Amino acid sequence: MHPAPSIILFTVLSGLGFGLLFFLGLDMPPVSGWTAFWFLVIAYVLAVGGLLASTFHLGHPERALKSFTQWRSSWLSREGWASVATLLVMGAWGGLVVFFDTDILPLGWLGAVLSLITVGATSMIYTQLRTVPRWNHWHTPALFLLSALSGGALLAGQVTLAIVLLIATGLFQIWAWHAGDRRFAARGHTVSSATGLGRPGFVRLFEPPHTGSNYLTREMVFTVARRHVAKLRLIGLGLFSVLPVVLLLLPFNHFIALGAVLSHVAGAFVLRWLFFAQAEHVVGLYYGRRDPAGIAA
Amino acid sequence: MTSLPSQPSLKKMGLVIDLDTCVGCHACVVACKGWNTENYGAPLADKDAYGAEPVGSFLNRIHSYEVTPEVGPAQTVHFPKSCLHCEDAPCVTVCPTGASYKRVEDGIVLVNESDCIGCGLCAWACPYGAREMDPVEKVMKKCTLCVDRIYNDNLPEVDQVPACVRTCPAGARHFGDLGDAESDVSKLVAERGGFDLMPEQGTKPVNQYLPPRPRDAWVAEEDDDTQIDVLAPFLAPVAEEPKGFFGWLDKALERL
Ligand code: SF4
Ligand code: SF4
Ligand code: SF4
């Protein structure tokens, strides 16, 4: 799939923001007064900034409110509701903490749960697509939730928990890659099932419908060179997990902590870029995408 | 609205596309673009039409494939593709605004363009590449099954079929009710072994494809009097085994 900057910004930033809100809601760390205020500002800038970035992806952002109507069937709509609910609940909780020095625990917990629901709903937008086998698996929500939690723990200064989560997410990411690389072929999508013509390996695109590109080829038939994938995966994991963990294990100071956060966020962008760029859409089969099952046959 | 109808409609209007007769002329592509630019909804735009990187939105596109059978020469199959008006349409349920919907009365899948926010998720959800974002209007475009022709009493009866069906010079596109087992299209599908595209996606497409018929062979079986190449017997090779110098060379190489 085309790795659109607006969507990468949206998923990474809002993941971090809602991850941080999760920990704030659980009083990890317990905050009050100005500290609470600045923590909340960071979380809201990330979460709201991410949501705003997502509207740049829309052809008609001025109609964005219409997307609240279909929560019964559409994950994109549910994601909208979940994020608004989270922002309202955590706003109320935060307002009370900052201005009235009252921490209503259950309200914070509700906000924490809603934060996770929001991240989960975002991931379901991708998970629900049977047309993209790499995403169409419980690995996707697990990965989004783990990423949001590790980023949130890091931002909330939960050092020990952050180390554990960063390692867990890194390992889970490796497993998800391993499984994801095989899923397209395992699902049995081939140019022969797409066209109904002959056995795999004996049907090939002779002429595309047009000589140039079209919306479909630009949006969905995006490929990354294999050798770049291996490098980017290493760079992504190094920045996302390894370097922050090493930095956190060093004697603590604020510069080192900032370095860990920056490295983690940069890594999150690389990994999210790969999440999109590597995802193969079945429509590619009609456009002469290499047919993994066919080559094996 | 973007929930699918609770009961599949009895009437399932759709197309049957004959891969045997399609000659790949793209006439249906042009007819479709013309009708749907001049009539319902946002016109189908072209951008940079005479420039280096032309793009445009189309509701129907023709691919061509080369198929190599187990025996015999490869053959070219032209492959028209437009929305299949799936019964279990994933493009409809993902839509956050209700712009995409499947009609209860006849199963046609449509986009209400004034509700569409242009998020593109429905195009991601369609396995067949049947939805394209218009490059100028930024709303989702898809085949309407020419809903503004098929029920349009202002048109002569012969024109009350989709523009692509009306225009196809080879008669490769058929239109009708696939929910009615007695309709001409349903009979055609039964007779010719019509099939679904990518059945493993579980979309239950309404549109059906008819397979290409096996090609005639140049040399028929011995006892087959349908021999079409009447000169073939006179062209049988006279020397199966090479003789002379080449015979010797052949044997020498064989022995190596
Ligand atoms: S062919 Fe694609 S756009 Fe048409 S109904 Fe099926 S899934 Fe939707
Ligand atoms: S692009 Fe339009 S029709 Fe498609 S899912 Fe988004 S709002 Fe619905
Ligand atoms: S039915 Fe109409 S809109 Fe659909 S492909 Fe044919 S001409 Fe185009």
List keywords for this structure.
heterodimer, A: 297 residues, mainly alpha, 2 domains, globular, disordered C terminus, B: 256 residues, alpha+beta, Alpha-Beta Plaits, two-stranded antiparallel ribbon, 7 helices, elongated, binds iron/sulfur cluster
The topology string of helices and strands of chain B comes to: EHEEEEHEEHEEHHEHEH
Q: Give the averaged pLDDT of chain A, no decimals.
A: 92
| Helix amount of chain A | 55-70%
The computed structural class of chain B is alpha+beta
- What low-confidence regions of chain A span 5 or more consecutive residues with pLDDT below 50? 291-297
Cα distance spanning the termini of chain B: 77 Å
Count of individual beta strands of chain B: 11
State the low-pLDDT regions of chain B, or none. Answer: none
Amount of beta strand of chain A: under 5%
Largest sheet of chain A: none
The count of domains of chain B is: 2
The protein's oligomeric status is heterodimer
How is the largest sheet of chain B built, in terms of strand order? 10-1-11
Number of helices of chain A: 11
How is the CATH topology of the largest domain in chain B named? Alpha-Beta Plaits
**Helix/strand class of chain A:** mainly alpha
The largest sheet of chain B is: 3 strands, mixed
GO biological process, one term (chain A): anaerobic electron transport chain
Pfam families (chain A): DmsC
Protein name (chain A): Dibenzothiophene desulfurase
GO molecular function, one term (chain A): dimethyl sulfoxide reductase activity
